[in-house]
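Ligand-bound model needed. calcium ion.
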Amino acid sequence: MRSVLFVLSRAAMAVVICLAPVAVSAASCGNSAAGFDTWKSSFVRTAKRAGVGQPGLTALAQARYAQGTINADRNQKSFKYSLDKFMQIRGAATIVAQGKKRKARNAGFFDALEKKYGVPAGILIAIHGMETAFGSYMGDSQVVSAIVTLTYDCRRSSFFEPHAIGALKLVDQGAITSATLGAKHGELGHTQFLPGNALTYGQDWNRDGRVDFYEMGDALASTAHFLRKKGWKRGRGYQPGDPNHKVLKKWNAATVYQQSLAIMGRQIDGS
Ligand SMILES: [Ca+2]
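Prediction:
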């Protein structure tokens, strides 16, 4: 769901600028490591008020200023690609070819997911391929440190704060630890959930008592659950103009991303 961040960044930034004098709780945000620890001790109160327990508070105390995340955030560039170019850059042909094999190999699993959530294999496999090349690259940044740093950072505090609280609650639940690695903006697991969404939509598909976004079954069930809760209609289409196409916007705000998912999904589903 990475690209959502890019699209939201301008709007969220405007909010931060307008509200900064009153909105950012007791401690002020900052644009460098100086002040991070002071801000963290103040953020403890916010976290407690939000219901974060001791494991989450400990993870907050252990969070370190994530310079790599801030560097990546400052260097974000916005590109405008045609659909064809975007699909080429993202390796859509490879995702479809591998995706068809993955669907055939795990037919029972994907049938069970569709039965429970109404979301067909093609879309879930296309998302899995787009987000992490089917789990082959899930990131190398510490999720808690990344998301707490982004909340402290002045640029988009209000956008990231619910995700920081989400990450700390995921620690409470044992879904992640302070060592869990994800992408630069704290997206975690096979389909790169932001922590707040992970907390809300996480599913324990394999029923081992733990929602694990680094276990494929849990991650894809959580993804299907997210789409279902965002309005996915069982048995209806997901091509542009179909009822489910607009649900893809909830996953990623970029039009070319949504269109790519629809094309890849149709090819993988073979319909
Ligand atoms: Ca599980």
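The longest strand covers residues 141-142.
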